Batch of 3 targets.
Target 1
Amino acid sequence: MKRLIPATCPESFLNLADMGVSEAMAILEQWLQAAGRVITKDQRDVMVRNYRTCQVPLYLRVLYREALTWPSTMPGADIRLGGAVKNVITVFIGRLERDHGESLVRRGLGYITAARCGLTEAELEDLLSLDDMVMSDVMAHCKPALRRLPTLLWARLRKELDEYLVETMTDDCVTLMWSHMTFREAAEDRYMKSKDKAPSYHKALAEYFADMWTDKPKPYQGNEIGSKRYTLGQPLYRIPESGATDGDTTRVYNIRRLNELPYHFIHSQQMSLLKKECLCNFEFLLAKISGIGLRAAYDDFRMALTAEPADLDLKLLSDTLHLSISALIKDPRQLASQIIGRMHDIITKDVPTAPGDPVRYPALKEFFEQAKNGSIPALIPSITCLTPPSGVLFDQLSGHTEPITAVCMSMDGQKCLTSSKDDTLKTWELRSGRVIKTIHGVGADVRQIGIGGNYAIAITSETAKVRLWSLRSGECLKVIDEYEDPATIVMAADGMLLVAFYQGINVMRVWAMGGKFALTQEVFLSDDQIEDTGVHQENSIVVGTNAYGALVLHANRNSSEAYVMNVKKGRVVLTLTAKKSGCITAMACTPEYFILALKSQYMETHELYTLALFDNRSGKFIRDVRGCVEDDVTQLLVNHIGSHAVAICASEANNASNIAIWNIETEEHKHVGKHAKVSHLGACVDLRYCLTASNDDSTLKIWNLTSMVNQPGTKGKIKDGLEDIILMTGNSRYVIAKSMNNGPIAVWNIAKGRCAGKAVHIERGLVNSTDVMLVRNTTILVLTDKGFSSATDNSPAVYQTLLIYDLLKKKYIQKLNNCYITPALPHEYVFLSDEQLMGLSDTHNHLVVWSTSTGRVVHRMKANFRDIEKRTRDAETSEADQRRRKRATTAKMSPWDRRAESESARARRHHEEILIEKQRMDDLHHEKDNIIEQFKISSDLSTVITSHYAHHLCVFDVQSQSHVQTLENHSSMLFLYTSAMTVNGSHLVHTNYDEEAKLSYLTLWDAREGYVRKRLRNEKNVTCVDISNDASRIVFGKSTKELRIWEPLAHGRSMRRIKGYPTLNFGDHSQIHIIDDGRRAVVYAGDISLWDLEDAAVLGVFTPDMRIQCFTPAMGGRLVVFGLQDTSDIVTLRLMSSRHKAIEKTGQDLFGESVSSDEDDEEMEAQLELE
């Protein structure tokens, strides 16, 4: 209690004097009177004599319970009582063993003592019935019909235990536990201290909770066949009769087994069974995380690793769970995908070095296979695509309810402070991972934290405010809010000076951390001062993360010169000028050096960071320590001895971060601890505890870097990810992956398990960075040699050379010069067939089809509005004219104003409205001349729909090369940003906003007939949509985290909603693909998920660590293929479980990979076909 409540609050504690003998005897008398008992004077004297040796209320109560058993004829000399509570309890237990039988009492109380969270009465009766020592005594005296403990025997014993046991609600059950810790300690001393006794209790408990003897005879001495004991079953979970079996939402988990079984395996020293039945058993671990939580699983792993610290299986699995915390806390069903996505390469490459040698992770081999065939369907990746465990993640601390905003460490590196948007400041003990202090009301906008005043004061910096907090009492000691600019703070002089650099006006102010916190210095940092009455938010000053005594580093942003400020004297004492050009992004001090992190240009498209070292006494330049192109140094951290520098390198583009380490003396540089999310916050004083946190995460990661600093490492290299994945229409087992920046082209066999993680064919160097490369099946079309054609004097730039490469023949099969192909972005070309290429004209006002045989234009698809209008005029009704007349005669007037309007005024108003409507119709007519803004082509390449930033869309038939229909809405601009077409292009669904109704719509068009089939009203924030092949089902996602199913052609209720999961995040890049004839859908919205549209349920979710660059379903939706930004490998996801069947082989092997055996393929291909 004194650790939790500050010592500065003496009123929080009251000293209680010992209860005197007279008071104790008075209380005893009241108890005896209430119980209707009287003791003799001799017996009372014994009680007084014993109570004088231990004047504790609990001891008095125990004496009273013993006195109730004394007959009046018992002389005081025969009474044996100990001088402590434990002694009396020991006497009490001995009497129970004499009265109720030694084996029953010994084993019964031993089981209660050994249990982790107590035992229910039913469990205790089952355990005693399974105990051969107890049952041998029972059968010798009672001879029950069944070999099971008679309930009466336990009931008699339970009555005498009365106050010594207490009923508590544990694991959703009422369990029996010792009512006082002293009672438990006495039972432990009697039953559990002997090394040969305690394991026997834990072993029996482990057998019981492992469900070993349910519905199975247990042998006993003299009977090898054994007999049933009729115990309750202990399954992992049960499913209610009304529940479904597709997921875990209807499962009722057996919390008793999940909590007790690992505990007893560990304490009975059965580590092999612990791994087989619990921690390395997929179904048990899934149930543990789903039913209790990830933290409970961590506790089991920590307990097991304490007992067996060298166990590689448990260490690897524990590290993997740490990395998966974000996904598993929100959705435990992702356990299989997270485990396989991180450990796939580790486990598959774990093979014996020589025949007969053991593998490194034997238990995880079986665990891996169990995960692929789990009871709950999961999207299983084909290769390692998530951050693999590296052994450096020490712990993840969860305590805040909102994202962390700032973090700092104490100077000894053993504690840290974190602030959060939940308005709290927490103090953590890093070794144990527990919160030792929480201060409320610190604000939700804390940008920086400091610790000063001998670790007694926390300093928080907000946008225009600095506050000082007592870490003992939690009260605010001082508020500095008279300055309106944001401050960057640093602690100097061993935490006794608070230094604040005010951004924008370039002023440094210093306060003493003692007394009244007086302002001691105010220094202007530049000659051209800005009035301090203004608010200037830009980061104009770079400040060192720590101080060397009273010396603090600061520099102007984008400068290569830094200054050493003596904050006690308020003047610059040294100027540090970097030898290399660049701009300073971060600085730090060590006992020997001042370190500047400089960013400079490298190879035109990259940036390189260099650490410049200066002597911290003379300011003389020492040397540069080079980094790599993967660095991103915004905050430079150093350990307390100054041997290493650390930076948290975050990548916004990849949604990932890692930790960069420099050895200051050897100049070795490496990256470790790659993890998901963009970690902007970091702190490190001791390499054992390097802290990282993200602005959108409420957990704090702790990394132990000591094991990595001396291991050889490699510097980061820029890796090109995938730009696009193209399905091969002629053979569904193949996909073609295009790397970013026109990198290599790779062919992947996604159906052949043997080829997982390895492309079957790669082509490099086919194109330059300025060329356009298009892929169709095994043909690659390259547009190159961009220049000006000689056809006319004013010809625009064109691609003059067309190359065709055959992936099967591995050579160019065609080269055309003197082509005339208009340059455009790669996505604005469509490879229609082996002989035709479609794209936009140079003016973007029509579509052009080029021949790949001649390189010349063969068709131009232009809008022909006159023919369309003439062809449809006879079929039109008077609806449009009625709408126009309504527009020209409807005024925004009240009925009484209209009645009072004169004939001449009405005529003038009608004339003005007609003119306005005429002008509007003219504007709509002029929109017909707009250029093509975007176009979409149907999957069968038969229909093209173009948008023109106008109130109409144009429909073209590719085969006839003609404009066949116009989709028009006079009150709504029509776009294709959020839209989808049927496979044959017969229908289009898209979002639009009606300017007259002021409502958002989801509109279904019949593209061939040119009219609206159905509209869904008031559908805002739709980010993605898809339509089934027959247009009977439309699925769309909204920013409200739900998926909606619209059946526009159905009668009755046509709209259904599916509630999303917590991490579902529909955005601009989200995609929906309807598969399986409209019965299922694959969704990419931050995560990849598979949905059952018929049952309105989520079948599986996969949460990636890094940002997905490209994504598409394959093989009719039975696989999902995606690519990441930092690797050129593709990843396939398969819905796998014990209930999903294998798929028949489709297509033929084209690239020579058929040399692998069919057995290997069958083993890896099993799980593709959905039931």
Target 2
Amino acid sequence: MYLVQDKGGAIALMLAALLFLGTWPAVLTLLERRGRLPQHTYLDYSITNLLAAVIIALTLGQIGDSTPEKPNFITQLGQDNWPSTLFAMSGGIVLSLGNLSTQYAWAYVGLSVTEVITSSITVVIGTTLNYFLDDRINRAEILFPGAACFLVAVCLGSAVHSSNAADNTKKLSGSSSNYTSKTCNSRDQEASKNLPDKDEPKDLEDGGLVSGSKINTEKAKVGTAEFLIQLENKRSIKFELFNIPKPMLPQWPDMLFLVIGSNTFLGLGIVFFAGICFSLFSPAFNLATNDQWHTLNQGVPHLVVYTAFFYFSSSCFIVGIGLNIYFLYKPVLGLPRSSFTAYLKDWKGRHWALLAGLLCGFGNGFQFMGGQAAGYAAADSVQIAFLLLLLSKGASVLEGVFDLVCYIGELRGWGCAMRIWRLNLLVMILATLLSSGAGKPSGEQPLSRIQIHKTTLALHDSAYIEASPRVLGLQGQNSEWVTLQYSHPSPSNDDWIGVFSPASFSSSICPPENPKESPPLLCTAPIKYQYANYTTSGYHKTGKGSLKLQLINQREDFSCALFSGGLSNPKLVAVSKKVTFANPKAPVYPRLAQGKLWNEMTVTWTSGYGINEAEPFVEWGARGDSQVRLPAGTLTFSRNSMCGAPARTVGWRDPGFIHTSFLKDLWPNKMYTYKLGHKLINGSYVWSRSYSFKASPYPGQDSLQQVVIFGDMGKAEADGSNEYNNFQPGSLNTTYQLIKDLKNIDIVLHIGDICYANGYISQWDQFTSQIEPIASALPYMIGRGNHERDWPGTGSFYQNTDSGGECGVLSETMFYVPAENRAKLWYSIDYGMFHFCRADIELMYSTDYGMFHFCIADTEHDWRPGTEQYGFIERCLSSVDRQKQPWLIFLAHRVLGYSSADFYGDEGTSEEPMGRESLQELWQKYKVDIAFFGHVHNYERTCPVYQSTCIRNGSNYYSGPFGATTHVVVGGGGASLADFTTVRARWSYYQDHDYGFVKLTAFNHSTLLLEYKRSGDGRVHDHFVISRDYRDVLGCAVDSCSRSTLAS
């Protein structure tokens, strides 16, 4: 089954949908204006509308394997999903009623008025319902620009209709100058003769277009009053004109005013009914596919968009066919009576009606596919904005497609300014939508570009690839450079080299698939890749090249493969001999973390030894003292622990075994040494090299304490491999700066979006290797971000696929955090004089470090009042002793405070939904000094701000009582940068569009320094100092003390 899961795909679908949905109403209007009965037209339309749904379901709905979570269309037809089926069918019913109603409404009040009113109702009711059905978590970067465009389009549509009406009035009022009184009188008499009697039967049994008046059969000049009169004569809906007694017929211009202006209230009533119908069909479809009301039995998968669309279109077809057959024999609104036989004989205009059904069917299907990816409210809003532009009379696109000018003559009276205005607005909206995601990095994993399943064999006798040395780590190294030499007799610039591990990357390691289909040649992605011409510019001519790649110990052997055909159509040309580390299972990449107590340190590492092969332990002790051995626990996980692709498919790689040991009863500030060991079953030992660390200070201890904070660093390759679209270019610079300043750092906090593996498990080893010099010497505390946790249906607050199927398993296992429940990654840390609160929206915990108290929240789980995490945050903030730990710090991945990121600005906000609205009173009440956030890939500092108001002006020095929390976005650790909005908010004090990190230095209980350093040069580019005494902490600030009166 083909699913669209990215914003670019959603926008492309909506652009295609708007072309189709913006065309079919004009086709039906054209047929009505040329006299074809709406009943005939709608019967044809309904048939191909259903046909489009069947085509989509049997093609896109059947592509790929059917899984229990996402079954294919035919598989799902037999499942017990009747509640969702009823929702889908109810959506089809109301859409059919709405479409049927608009056919008659167009004739009464015009296309532009109908679309403006129905779209207004849809936005007010339908889009609002969808927004709240999705718990307000929509792709709002699409929703809000679409809503803004909608408002502009409403005004434009109204102006267009007003302009057209005024133009018609002017033409008809001036018709007396074109016709003499004699001519008019003669035409009145001719009209009186040719108009049918009120009591004459209005049957139509012979098929064909409705026979209109024979008045003035000579074709009039387009744009003239005569043309308008002829246009009204041809229409199938004659309003109540036939009920006017012949002697009372007015002159032609007056009669046309009567036709145009009569029955307005009836027409508006039909329009409002249609608007209500249109506002309900999309929420019904939303409920059918997402089951927000939990009507399905446990274990029954949600309706996929294709199955829901099939049921939706089926009910739309049944209602449309039934009502229009009834209207053949019982016509309404003065239409002539017809029959099914007459309908079958009516071939004039049938091809256009059938085309309209196909256009509407495919348009609705694409809109629903886009809505599934971007949120139905976003899809509705964008479609409505475009439809208002395209469906207003004279839309540039429709003029080109159908030459509407030929039958809507009043368009010729439009001024040049109006046309230019419409064209500019259309271009503006297209540019807004297509660039709406430009500022927010997509986080694409470079390995995801490789279509490894499509690999075919193209081995060539004269092609080769050789790697040297073939045995690595002979000196105990965990990383080493390998030189590749390769040759291809038919080279191209698309040739590339992939490094695979394990080396035997054949189909034998593929998981079982459909027994009726042959397994793919390759089913696991390489751990890294690089183009063959990367360091050999003449490769495409000579076919010979060389390349140096860095390999790290990852528990298995390696082989290098040369491919042609590019990344999208790989052809395996040559494979190298195996390369291996001397001891591939050795313990590697230790990661220190603060324990649950201030005098406890944990050490976590990775190895290839399971508990049945060896006993893991840490040998450690104070520097210069005797060493003792402490056992370690062992964890691992399987492919089935992953939640989806690619982590469960091409991205899967065995993670080995993760061991953790707890070093307790540490002396404050004392240096300790340790090394990792495994005792094998045969009694021999395997050792790592020796490492050292300094124990944490006693909580409240008055000493120099230095903390580094950043987010969104990701991993990068020293050999330049795996780079895509300049993604994560600052990661290595940040890493190098921290290593360079290691002696002046006590603890590191990485607040989410850790390595951007996005489901490619091998990349976690790459990241732990990259940070080993830091994490082996300092506590490396993590928070969890969207690229570690988010996956639909797994309890994450945001139902997107950013984790690539990891759904938090890797971050919970590869790093230790002092959380009560590691699936809920919120926690606090006390460090010396600091108290840090880190909210992982769900990796939440607190930790003390000297004078600091950190509260770490988890933004991938709900933080709003009444939730478990909200309770944790309040307990964390309220529990700190500010006399001992004066510096209270809150941390979270997504921005719950303030940010000027352009992708927030596009949504009309500066934060995550219900972010600071939920937490700002807690920050103010408990006097949080600084709140740090990642997610936005840049640096920004606010003034001390509360409720969007600067309580104190931004400065580089603050003294005296607490005013409000300073918010700092520090998401420029290494992932591609995000842009700022063009309009700067008053609370935004300092902005830097570059990579960097923050360093906090507590000199004592009264002085705290924040420094922002760029990763590129290591220099300080922003700083501020807080200077205050304990009595200043006790003082009241805005909303920080209980409200009191003279009586109390």
Target 3
Amino acid sequence: MACAFCARQSTVVIVLVSIFFACSAQNLGTLETWADNLGEELWKLGQGVTQASDLKTQYKTRNAGVDEKDGSHLLEKIVDRVARMLKWKIDAVQCIKTAAEDIAEQFEYEGYENFSYPSTKHSLVNGEPPEEFDNETTLYSPMMLGSDPQFYNILVNTSYSAVHVPTNVYDKAPHVIEAIQWSEQLDDVFLRNRRSDPLLSWQYFAGSSGFLRHYPAMKWNQYPDLYDCRTRPWYIAAATCSKDVVILMDTTGSMTGMRHSIAKLTVNTILDTLSNNDFVSVLNFSSHATEVVPCFKDTFVQATLENINTFKAAINALELEGYANFSTVFTQAFKLLEQQRETRGCGDESGTLCNQAIMLVTDSVAGNITEVFEKYNRLDNGTTIPVRVFTFLVGKEVTKVMEIMWMACLNRGFYAHIHSLEEVREQVFKYIPVIARPLVLQGVVHPVVWTHAYADIRDPKLDNWLWDVMESGSDQKERLSKHMQLKELRFSQEKEDSMYTQKVFKKFREPDKLRFQEYKLLTSVSIPAFNRKLEFENGNYSNFPELLGIAATDIPIEDIEKLTLPYQIGVNGYVFVVTNNGYVLLHPDLRPVVRGVLTSSYNSVDLTEVELLEESLPRELDPEILELREAMVNHSTGEILGLNMKFQYDDMKRAYVEKRDYYYTPLKGTPFSIAISLPEGYGHYQLRVGQEIQKTWMRGERVEKYFEGKNWKLYRKWVYCKYFYSSLYDFESPEKELLHFLAKISDLKYDFKWQDPYRFGYDEYEIDDGVDNEANTDGFIEMTSYNESRFCQKQEVSEDEYYCDENLMNLLVFDAKVINAVFHGDKWSPDDELDELIKSYNASIRFIASQSGLIKWQYISDFDDENETLNFGDLNSNGIHESWYKSAILQHQVDPESLFLSVPFEAGSKDGPIFMTASHAIFSRDGGKDAAVAVAGFEFEHSTFYKKFMTVTSDCPDCEYSCESPEWDCYVLDSNGYIIISEVANDTGRFFGEVEGAAMEAMLEASIYKKIRIYDYQALCKDEDDDGANSASILLTPLHHLRLFFNWMFSELVWLILESNLHHLWYTASANPILTEDDAEDYIEYNSSPEIESPDEEISFEETDWVVNKTKEETYFPCDQKTNLYLLMQESFFDEGYCHTSESCSRPFCMKRIPHTNLILVVIDGTYQTCYKKLSISPKTLDYGSDNFTHSCRKLKLNNLPRRRLSGCFTEDPKENTQHMCGSCVTITMNFKILLFSWFILFVRRYVYTL
């Protein structure tokens, strides 16, 4: 039954659950009295401690105005800042490319007798020999290196570059050493780029022969060295553009043993060369072709890391059977590619070009299938071959070599024969130059290519270094030390995952060690450079048409985020960036790391997976979000207003629903689009201040006077003022850095220069200067010419130059004046009356955080934390992103005169005192408009509040029961259902549904709370399977030991032969092709010279784990999870309470809100029995059924969403047919010495087995 309660409107709801046999007015009035007494006292305490009215008065008397935000205009300002920065990075790469082409064209090679260069692997470093040191050569010059904060504190030298040469490339080969020589002149360009843009990250020039010249110079720290720059995303993307690939893997009965192993590694290696812009289908075949992943049937999927891992797992499980029908298999592949061309509209009036290829991996071909190629791969009367065919012949004893070779030659492809596992990578890599050939042949347009996001810890050249610097006495180690201290006091998995990955290091006879590593997300921009020495005469090239190399640089995603004016966007608003594939490059809910593990889907999280409407269901594609996604993918400009969105925060423990407005536009010159999301209402207003700094020194005051004391901090992710060469200035903290610049402002006054880090406006690049840099609809810049004098001769930045955000600095100084007037000094002493109330709650600290990122705190009366290693600012360093800040602003929308109170989650189960946090939103009002300007609050001991609560609820002489009575179970809950007060201390901080599930369910039915379903599509689930199988030990005889010894010796010998490449003595690869032009005429007419074999190349790849290992006891796999979170419907119970009878499962209870707080008091009639129920907020794995057995399959619906193919791709060139370059066969010769030696080893091994 419902009982009416008289209660004031307030922000905080207290649910008093009490059971009465008769709902008498006297008892109900008592409950109302308890609620009012608690609420009024807490509000009095909050107003007195925070001095909220004084703060509001300060904002008003200092003439702060309130302006309405124009979302579109704000976005334009953000785009201007970000676009200028990105354009400067493009300029740097363009200068490297232009210089490389000019230098290479004019360079004359005369040997290397008097030449030396800094080698990342072979040079002496600070006088110490490296891992791979050759003291018999003078080719490698020594390097002097030192740590540099701009480059992770890695040992570098910013005066010159260094060269890395892959293990499989001979650095003294003429074509390699020649390129290393001429590229040395690029150091001038690297240095000039850095002097004009000191914020530039790593700069690269990767030669087509495999060498990498990188600036600054560094020592190599990966052994064994498997790195090859030609496999990096920025290299492959610039060389090949996007492509559709069908991989055909032979799984017939003949593909047994080593052939099958080679085939699997070959397919995996091909997959590793693909990126997010590529689409792939993998078919295994015998008499017919079948998708290796059943749910990928008759379709292409994007080559994301997650999909690649799914393919690899399926390939490892393939079984061999039957025989091959190549006609059927190729027909199916061609039809699949034809369907893809129709879907994408290739060759239609849109001008879209398709780069398509078939990769065949087999050990033989039954016969000639030219008729299939004629039917399906000849368009426009046979003049167009839309699909390239690459053939990889595996195994040593093979037949039908001519047939499989000419499959490639007839179809603009390449043939490679792979004899052993160690040949796989270099042979697979040969397809890259073939696909890049049309780009090289056109020789005019240089597409500017951007990569998808990737983590720096996945970059092989940095990976080991990043782990090493965490162990040194660097800034990273200091930050980690502070984090570990914070973790003991206030742990947040979300915060930890945003900063660190984790890895278990194992050492022999030592316990496993869990190590933490900072990480960053990066994107790279790259431009291909062409070899201008190619001459086309009489229908032939004088040498092989190839790329000269790729120029590139990295851009940390956080550098983009710093330019997005977060202080103007405001609390609960945010910026996000979406790629041409609909994946988020930047988003507050993008979580690359989960539980310390870098997920396999971190760079392919779709926008529809992080932007969720309130009523969204699992994997349901909401039309409004699809509209937003498609507009951003297509580089459109516009807005979508009033979307009712749900979101989680505070470690996915709290949720809220509010209307949001979205504004979006493209980022010129990139395939990305950028958008801002603003909360409806308060998100559209901001504080307006004038030239506050100028006003200060005009009054004869020094600006820094408002930043006295030690109890204040800045939000360290925001940029206020900074030197370009910040590594030269050793500031102890961001606060010391700010004080330095404030003093500089006070000294220089009008002479202080306010400038942005990228000084030229983006409009200056729109001037007609001979550069076709207008971004087309695909976000590419096609560079046809370049004004080097304009963009490669920028003004150099001196070491004492700096940049500042003038608006942010003025806002910061204004906030400091307001705060200093109320929160003056490091301690605060209240008046006697308020002091007595404060002491009754044992409030120890008060604080305020402003919109400008300033946070200040004061210790109350005699309390201090001088003996503590961490202060309040350390524990609450995220400014407007702290949970208490966000919650106070959201609570203000319900009731402006209220506090948001909370306790740490699961606080009752932890040792030590519990502190409650109370926060109150400060809004400044002007002209009828309110803007959120700050949040003030305080901390007090939970135990004192518990005593106060028990005192208030026991003060009822005429009541039959009270909260001290065993007949009543009393609780206080917050607005998300967490227990603030319970008679069982261990319940503090727990979710109420886990303790009283039936009562919580009854409140849901009565609409007291609302359930908000949060879907996490970036989750990792723990693998609970544990085989637990251990082999039983056996008694070993001496002869058995001897046999094991010889087995070990034999396996080591075989491994030595393989590692030493001695197996190549069994055969000799012919340096010249066996086939002549006469042989070619039997298949197709070519008017060309004999084919030229590509140079040997080898690739290395990043390690990818489908099932991620965090520790030796736990494994995780990607999954979807649902979490049920709860929100109190406070507006519904401002004037009424609610009583629940015992008719349902729950015991009888009544609820009543407490004014001015977000807590609820629950009194349940303990004399009734209840059917035990448990409502959990723990994430639950979503089960979609057995058909969708992998996470990639669950995301398959996203595969059909709109994507924007990038332009700047070249799929064919008329001059390509003038060269016959499609690989060659090899001759096999027997080495009888090795054969006899092998027989001897086998004989000895067999003799030992008989013992």
